[in-house]
Design goal:
With 337 residues, this protein is mainly alpha-helical. The chain is built from 15 helices and two strands. The longest helix has 28 residues. Bound molecules: ligand 2DE and magnesium ion (3 copies).
């Protein structure tokens, strides 16, 4: 793949950033920010020692290339085009924020596996997992400040509050309409992708029109991505996901498959309202989802958002990275994990 080398470099950079801090980032009162606590050191690097899907940085690094081809007057030597060092750093920041949110998510969801290994909360404890997530967010914030771009700093900082608000909406559901579901999905997943695509476009010096194209692409891809995550919770296994499957109903969550099923089986409304909390609710809801067209309708909703994402990409001039982004967008719906 075009960005494999970039991704390997990024993972090395993240582990270095996490353990050694950011060099040259001002004189800190407490001295160098190199990590000294051995346990924090291993927890903080824990998931980065493995290869996750790294889909967010892959998107950003391909987008950076596609945009610099779009912006260049003479796009003849396309293969020489590389993401800039600030764009590389942005990809790092995004993977760190994403991972921090998952470390906290696994505490909230009480999940015992992640990326095929025991989760941090399960291996260590909830307390240490919370601190680990906070630590990663702090490192990501310092790294963000080194980009010295106020607009990008504002966008990416707002993403963090969006993640929290999305998670909050999910825990304290205020109704179960599709509008609420899509809003929650934007906040907990699509905001990070949309705003990091927007930031990548800003950092490539694109004009407003191209910046908005990149944003729309990220937003629709992000919505599709989480809708498929919610679908896979029903259709996939813990083994193939590398994280617990069939848990969303038990967590009280009414995701797209259930919301579609409730249009065919109105009796699901009662179960949704009480968050599948009575004995037998989870099994009954699952049975109705599979008896309905909820799964197929969810898949076609995700495909709709993927197609919108591809329409945005088609507004960019043809190039190898653009076409790889189109392929990647398709695989969001066909993926098994
Ligand atoms: C993934 O959803 C959740 C993403 C947002 C989590 C945000 C939190 C707020 P899932 P899976 C926890 C705190 C944010 C920080 C620290 C930046 O469906 O299926 O639970 O992978 O994901 O468990
Ligand atoms: Mg979860
Ligand atoms: Mg969750
Ligand atoms: Mg999920």
């Amino acid at each position: 793949k075009l960005v494999d080398q970039d991704l390997n470099q990024m993972t090395k950079n993240i582990i270095d950033t996490v353990t050694n801090g950011i060099s040259g980032s001002g004189e800190h009162a407490g001295g160098p920010s190199k990590l000294t606590h051995p346990v924090l050191k291993s927890i903080a690097a824990y998931y980065f020692d493995l290869k996750g899907k790294r889909i967010r940085p892959t998107i950003l690094l391909l987008l950076a290339r596609a945009l610099s081809i779009a912006n260049s007057a003479n796009p003849a030597n396309q293969s020489a085009i590389q993401p800039s060092s600030v764009q590389m750093r942005l990809a790092e920041i995004v993977e760190m924020i994403h991972t921090a949110s998952l470390v906290h998510d696994d505490v909230i969801d009480d999940a015992d596996t992640r990326r095929d290994v025991p989760s941090i909360n399960h291996t260590y404890s909830n307390k240490l997992a919370i601190l680990c997530g906070d630590f990663l967010l702090s490192r990501a914030s310092v790294l963000l400040s080194t980009l010295k771009n106020h607009e990008v700093t504002e966008l990416m900082s707002t993403v963090i509050s969006d993640l929290v608000e999305g998670e909050f909406m999910q825990i304290k559901a205020s109704g179960s309409s599709f509008d609420i579901y899509i809003r929650k999905t934007y906040l907990k997943t699509a905001s990070l992708i949309a705003n990091s695509c927007r930031s990548t476009a800003i950092l490539s010096g694109s004009d407003r029109q191209v910046i908005d194209i990149a944003t729309d692409f990220g937003k629709n891809l992000g919505l599709a991505f989480q809708i498929v995550d919610d679908l896979l919770d029903f259709t996939s296994s813990t083994e193939s996901l590398g994280k617990p499957a069939s848990v969303d109903l038990s967590l009280g969550l009414a995701t797209a498959p259930v919301l579609f099923a409730a249009q065919e089986f109105p009796e699901l409304e009662t179960l949704i309202e009480r968050k599948f909390s009575m004995p037998g609710d989870v099994d009954e809801a699952r049975r109705l989802v599979f008896q309905s067209n909820g799964i197929e309708k969810t898949r076609s909703l995700a495909i709709d958002y993927c197609n919108k994402a591809i329409q945005s990409l088609m507004l960019l001039p043809p190039s190898e990275p653009r076409d790889l982004l189109i392929t990647l967008t398709h695989t969001v719906v066909t993926r098994k994990r």
